[in-house]
Structures are given as structure tokens and as C-alpha cells.
Write a structure and sequence with these properties.
621 residues; alpha+beta; seven-stranded mixed β-sheet; 18% strand
């Protein structure tokens, strides 16, 4: 027999597939990763960047759960920025510009170094399903790879169709074939499928751009990082740049609207609301005479440039003509035009909290197949699917994160409870407990759960112990140490803060707006001397812990109240139509979604508060 039976078969080598393979393998499962092309494992199909608003928090959570996205990013980034520093800490979001080629290379090398992961390069055209249970996959050569569980992470490849102007071509990505057969089989089995659309901008030759007329966007100094492990620090960075479209650019783009697949009906799939194409932005925001563009290098050594904000499916000659009217792009040379791509996805109401499908046992979906967009959203789904596939074949309790545990929990709960009809993207506004789900505390929130699962995270846990010990020491120091008016009043006046009239504890000073530990370390010698013993990461964490203690404690209480509803389980076979008192819409929605808990039921659109009360009475609560 060519293949042994694998514990977990992962179909697709994108961000979801890579994290799924690593998660299962790190727990001890024997994994087969099947991909159409070994050269494109972990390829950054669109923007060469990781993180961003809410997405950065997800990368930190993946890292805290022993995933690899943060580690790979730290090894291959060319710029780091912490976004939203002018806002509260719940909004602070790390983002890194990556070296596209080195990112994919590092991922592949880490996967190949894992003794529990095997590889097969070929297209999967179908699943082996026996008595409603996934038992393996079938390839285009007619081979069968047996497995106890299967995770589909097909990205944009399921019946992918690329659009450039009035031309169409099959493909899952520029220059790569679409995947056929899986959608058709799943639909035959009773799954519902639909279409979505995404797009990518043109790539240009950086040597042909006039950088002097653009705004420079440097990275943070010193640069931060994603992983809580001992990854390398970024000592030098490549700048990004900012430029803008103008009315002349918009007029040229409009000349191609008649041939645009977005406007003439050829594209049927729904596109991302929060990352629209440039033609969509011009059409929807007609009153705006310019749109911001981020000009981002693709790596340390390449001259290829990503034009963030200029995604388009217009004819290539229209894209080119309009691009040359952008300041700095007057002599731009295009490597390839932007394009749109349509692909199949499966509305995620068909999934359980573990990302296992309801119709087929031991079959999991992760990534864009579930209607999400973004590397980070895909990666965290792959991680959760890989963990739960491993647990399922060992008859162990599933691993589920709540909305109070992680952004990952928010994302999965949103998908399986509310579904999505447009590409789902994570935002901080989606999380009701975001002051608890900060980017600086993902390790404290989640790494002990990875340890409980059986992952080797002893080094991580030791660092967390040090972090918590430092936090306690710093809090005690600020609570017990006093400062006199003469030591600090000049500094307070410079900051526009009221001067002291008598000695006060340092904690009271730190609670003032616009005053941080770093400021106090510079002006009060005893603070500076005390703080020298701690890493900056520990100091930053302690500062947030002190300044926002009231908000944090209040949100913890709210989360506890919500978790009481999450602890009330609902059996999957419950016949809601027979429960007296439920509204007809509530019974219909509950039957469709099949929530696992009362908490999840309360978040379903169409299920009222009175419906929840009826359910609680029915359960004897």
C-alpha cells in the first residue's frame, strides 16, 4: 500500500492548512499535508503582511497556543508597527510587513522539520466517506489516502475563476489551477455551497517609482515582535510609503467600468465590504476625490512592490493608464495587473463549534472555505481544526474557546452562530470583551490551555511565571512608593497635568492620562533604578494592568455572567419545534443552527430573550 492510514489529512497548504498540520502534529498525530504545489506552501497570495487591527491579536493567540504564524513572521519580517497607539490598549494591534519569499520558505522548512508531518503533491478531487464518516481523500491520479480525519483548507481554489476586465480564466491564484470535484461531491451529500469574491492589486517594479514624492511610513523603533518565544529582534527595517489617488486617476478608471466584471454582472460572488476594489471605492464613495494607497515592499531584496488599496479587476490597460497618474507612479512598470477571483465556500452554519461538519463526521473545514478572508483568520481556524481533529480520534473532550477567551473564540462563534454572506474579517468591535482580549496578554490567557492539551510549552510557561511575578512586583512598588511634589511637579506641568500639593503614591500619578512608566522612569531616579530589572514587555503589561484595573475587573465580571449561559449545554437532538412557548422564528433558527449552549443560542439572530427564557424553563433552569 502506497500510504498508511493517517490520523489527520490536511487538504491545502495555505495558512489554515499549515497551522492545522502543525497543531495536530504537535499533539502527536501522524499528519499528511496534501497540496497541489509544494512550491507555494504558506504563500502570501495577497498582501505581504501579517497582523493589523484585531488580526494582530489573533496572531498572538495562535502563538500562545503553540502555533507557528508568529514565529515565522518574526523570522521574516522587514518592518513592525504597533497600530492604534493613540487609542486604549484594547485597540493596540501589532502588524508586520513580511518578506514574501522568506515567509513561505520558513514555513516550509519548519513543516519539513516536523517528524509527524508527511507531504503529497497532487490535487485532491474527492473525499472517501463511508457511512457518513470521512475516511480519507481521492487524488487526481486515482489514489486513495486513508485517514481517520480530514481537514479541508482549500482557500480560493474550489472552482476558482479569475477575472481581468472582460476575460475569465480558471484558477485558484494567478498561474495556478483551480480545484474541481470537492464542491460537487459535498453538494451531493447535502451541503449548501455559495460563491464569494476577493481580489488583489497590481504588482509593480520599485525601480520605476519616484519615492521622493511619497510620504515615508517607517517602522517602530525599537521594533516589536509577535511571538512570546525567543525569536530574533528586528534590528533594521524597510520603510513603506503612502500616496493617494486623485480625480484624474478616478476618471481613467471609470472608462473601464463598462468592461468591469464587478459592474456588468459577470462576478456573482459577494466581495469583501472592508477591503473593496478601487473601482468599487470610486463608485460607492463618489464624493471623495482621493483614496489612500500604501506602497509596500515585498521583501528585503526584491524590487517587487505591492500597491495596497489599488485592488482591481478592470482591464489591464485601464489599470496601467490610471496607475501612471498616481504621484510617484508616473513611470511605473507593472509586473502583473490586479485581478478578482470567485470561488466556492460553504456557509459556516453547517459546522459545529469544533469546525467539524454536521453532515459528515470527522470532516473539518478551516479558512476561506468557511467564508472568511485574511491569513490570520484562516490560520486560527486551521489551528482549532487541527487540535479538534486530534482530540476526536482519541475520544477526548473537544477544545472550544469562548468569546471571553480569545478573538479566535469570537470568530468561530460568529461564523457558526450568525453565518456570513460576505467575506468575514475580524475587527476589535466584534469582541464585547476586548479589554480582556488584548495583544499583550494572549500568553497568559491561552498558553496554560495548550499545556493542558498536552503540548510541550514548558519554556513558554516559565516565561509567563516570570511575567506574572514581575507584574506583581511592579504593582506593589507603585502602590507602596511615594513621590514628593519637588520630585515631579515640573514634569507634571510640562505634561499639562495638575501639580502635587503633598506626597502621594506613585500609583495615583500613573493613573493620570498621558503619563506612563517610561516617563516616570526618566524623571524619578528611584523609579528608573527599580525598572531596570524588567523586560519592556513586562513593564508594558504591568502598566496596562495598573492603569485599566477598574475596566478589566468590570469586564471580567460581565464575562463571568455570560459564561453562566455558556455552561448550560443543549443536546444536538433537541426538537425545538415541540417546545411550547418558543416563537416560530426562534424554533426555526434554533433548528438550523443547533447551538451547543444557551449562550450561543442567545446570539442567534431571530432568537428573542423570551425564547431563551422558555429554553431555560424547559431545561429546568
Amino acid at each position: 500500500m502506497l500510504f498508511p492510514e493517517y490520523d489527520v489529512i490536511v487538504v491545502g497548504g495555505g495558512h489554515a492548512g499549515c497551522e492545522a498540520a502543525v497543531a495536530a502534529a504537535n499533539l502527536g498525530s501522524k499528519v499528511m499535508l496534501v497540496t497541489m504545489n509544494m512550491e507555494t506552501i504558506a504563500k502570501m497570495s495577497c498582501n505581504p503582511a501579517m497582523g493589523g487591527v484585531a488580526k494582530g491579536q489573533i496572531v498572538r493567540e495562535i502563538d500562545a497556543l503553540n502555533g507557528y504564524s508568529g514565529i515565522v513572521t518574526d523570522h521574516t519580517m522587514i518592518q513592525f508597527r504597533l497600530l492604534n497607539r493613540s487609542k486604549g490598549p484594547a485597540m493596540w494591534s501589532p502588524r508586520a510587513q513580511s518578506d514574501r519569499m522568506r515567509f513561505a520558505e520558513k514555513w516550509r522548512l519548519m513543516l519539513e522539520a516536523h517528524p509527524n508531518i508527511d507531504f503529497w503533491q497532487e490535487m485532491v478531487v474527492g473525499l472517501v466517506i463511508k457511512n457518513g464518516v470521512a475516511k480519507g481523500v481521492r487524488t487526481s491520479l486515482g489514489l486513495e489516502i486513508p485517514g481517520k480525519t480530514v481537514i479541508l483548507t482549500n482557500g480560493t481554489f474550489l472552482n476558482g475563476l479569475i477575472h481581468i476586465g472582460d476575460r475569465q480564466m480558471g484558477g485558484g491564484r494567478a498561474g495556478e489551477r483551480a480545484s474541481k470535484g470537492i464542491t460537487e461531491q459535498l453538494v451531493e451529500l447535502g451541503f449548501e455551497s455559495s460563491r464569494m469574491k476577493t481580489g488583489t492589486p497590481a504588482r509593480v517594479d520599485g525601480r520605476s517609482l519616484n519615492w521622493d514624492v511619497m510620504e515615508v511610513q517607517p517602522g517602530d523603533e525599537p521594533a516589536g515582535k509577535f511571538s512570546y518565544t525567543d525569536t530574533p529582534k528586528l534590528l533594521k527595517q524597510r520603510p513603506c510609503h503612502v500616496t493617494y489617488t486623485n480625480p484624474k486617476v478616478h476618471e481613467v478608471l471609470k472608462t473601464g467600468f463598462e468592461r468591469s466584471p464587478l459592474f456588468n454582472g459577470r462576478i456573482q460572488g459577494t466581495g469583501p465590504r472592508y477591503c473593496p476594489s478601487i473601482e468599487d471605492k470610486i463608485d460607492r464613495f463618489a464624493s471623495r476625490d482621493r483614496h489612500q494607497l500604501f506602497v509596500e515592499p515585498e521583501g528585503w531584496d526584491t524590487v517587487e512592490i505591492y500597491v495596497n488599496g489599488f485592488s482591481s479587476s478592470l482591464p489591464e490597460e485601464v489599470q496601467y493608464k490610471a496607475m501612471r497618474l498616481i504621484p510617484g507612479f508616473e513611470n511605473a512598470k507593472m509586473f502583473r495587473p490586479g485581478y478578482a477571483i470567485e470561488y466556492d465556500y460553504f456557509p459556516p452554519l453547517q459546522l459545529q463549534q469544533t469546525l467539524e461538519t454536521r453532515l459528515v463526521k470527522n470532516l473539518y473545514f478551516a479558512g476561506q472555505i468557511n467564508g472568511t478572508t485574511g491569513y490570520e483568520e484562516a490560520g486560527c481556524q486551521g489551528l482549532m481544526a487541527g487540535i479538534n481533529a486530534h482530540l476526536a480520534i482519541r475520544d477526548q473532550e473537544p477544545f472550544v474557546l469562548t468569546r471571553a477567551d480569545a478573538y479566535i473564540g469570537v470568530l468561530i462563534d460568529d461564523l457558526i452562530t450568525k453565518g456570513t454572506k460576505e467575506p468575514y474579517r475580524m475587527f476589535t468591535s466584534r469582541a464585547e470583551h476586548r479589554i480582556l482580549l488584548r495583544q499583550d496578554n494572549a500568553d497568559i490567557r491561552l498558553t496554560h490551555l495548550a499545556q493542558k492539551l498536552g503540548m510541550d510549552v514548558s519554556d513558554r510557561m516559565a516565561r509567563i511565571d516570570s511575567k506574572l511575578a514581575a507584574d506583581q512586583k511592579i504593582k506593589e512598588f507603585f502602590a507602596q512608593t511615594s513621590v514628593a511634589p519637588g520630585e515631579i511637579n515640573r514634569f507634571l506641568e510640562e505634561k499639562g497635568s495638575s501639580p502635587l500639593k503633598q506626597k502621594v503614591k506613585l500609583q495615583g500619578v500613573l493613573l493620570r492620562p498621558n503619563i506612563g512608566i517610561e516617563d516616570l522612569s526618566k524623571v524619578i531616579p528611584k523609579v528608573g533604578n527599580f525598572m531596570k530589572q524588567f523586560d519592556k514587555e513586562f513593564l508594558d503589561y504591568a502598566e496596562v494592568d495598573i492603569k485599566y484595573a477598574g475596566y478589566i475587573n468590570r469586564e471580567k465580571e460581565q464575562a463571568k455572567k455570560m459564561n453562566r449561559l455558556e455552561s448550560v449545554r443543549l443536546i444536538s437532538s433537541l426538537d425545538y419545534k415541540k417546545i411550547k412557548g418558543l416563537s416560530s422564528e426562534g424554533a426555526e433558527k434554533l433548528t438550523q443552527v443547533r447551538p451547543g449552549t444557551i449562550g450561543q443560542a442567545s446570539r442567534i439572530s431571530g432568537v428573542s430573550a423570551s425564547d431563551i427564557s422558555v429554553l431555560l424553563v424547559h431545561l429546568g433552569r
